[in-house]
Amino acid sequence: MGLRRSTRRQQAAEERTGTAGPAYDAAVELRGVQRAYGRGSGTVHALRGIDLTLPRGTFTAVMGPSGSGKSTFLQCAAGLDRPTAGLVRLGGTEITGMNENRLTELRRSRLGFVFQAFNLLPSLTVEQNVLLPMRLAGGRQDRERAARLLDQVGLAGKGRRRPAELSGGQQQRVAIARALVTSPDVIFADEPTGALDTTTAAEVLALLRSAVDTLGATVVMVTHDPAAAAHADQVLFLADGLIADRMPRGSAEAVAARMTALTADAARTARTYAGAAA
Predict the structure, then answer these.
(1) Is the dihedral of CA 108, 99, 75, 245 positive or negative?
(2) Using the 8-state DSSP alphabet, how is residue 182 labeled?
(3) 4, 33, 17, 2: which is closest to 185 by C-alpha?
(4) Per-residue pLDDT tens for 11-70?
(5) Edge-to-edge strand ranges of the sheet holding 59-63
(6) CA-CA distances (angstroms) from residue 2 to 45, 56, 183?
(7) Which CATH number does 24-277 carry?
(8) Burial of 216 (0-12, 13-18, 19+ CB in 10 A)
(9) Which sequence spans correspond to the domains of the chain?
């Protein structure tokens, strides 16, 4: 159906960013990534040294207790925030030292994003929202591709509607089509089902799973929901800015049990620190 990444388009993108070279199997690489906020005694270490390689065509869920560094991890991996130390590669391209203009170009052409709040522009039609990444990247707006993607996410014939005319689940389907339209190296999803009911959430997660299985997409999803994480190939558990554990694809019950144990460990550690400081 012409939905796989174009080798010629990818090579052109690599030439623009100065990274043309051999193909990479890794979609996401983090090496020694740290992120600290503030200075002196008030410094908060959100990430303390993340080492990670995620192959292309995989679905990874990221979980952890509140304050574990999940959001910071996603922001650094997606080039939305800069690490204090370490390096990040996306599709073999090191983004750590890129200036903001080059980062913006990379995000528009090689990354896709799905957020909890959908982030659709209400003044644009569904079709225009899907095509927005192509428009912002200055490329040709492929209406046939947009129509195919809308059909694939179950929204055939709804391209001329406005987001306000759609349900929450349908709006998230539009966001997934938009994330896929440029055949990105990675789709980053931040709590994509947080605003949806259980049935609709399952449908959206099935679409992300299908994007990996049938289109070869790479998905990295931050979630608090064990049922959502159960759709992933692996679950990474963050605690105190580090990868504390990981598990291969399992049931929602197994993910929940692992998360409960991790949260209990984090609570014990916090009490220990509090007692030592008293």
Answers:
(1) positive
(2) T
(3) 4
(4) 433 433 334 333 458 999 999 999 999 988 889 999 999 999 999 999 999 999 988 999
(5) 111-115, 186-190, 219-222, 59-63, 234-239, 242-248
(6) 44, 18, 10
(7) 3.40.50.300
(8) middle
(9) 24-277
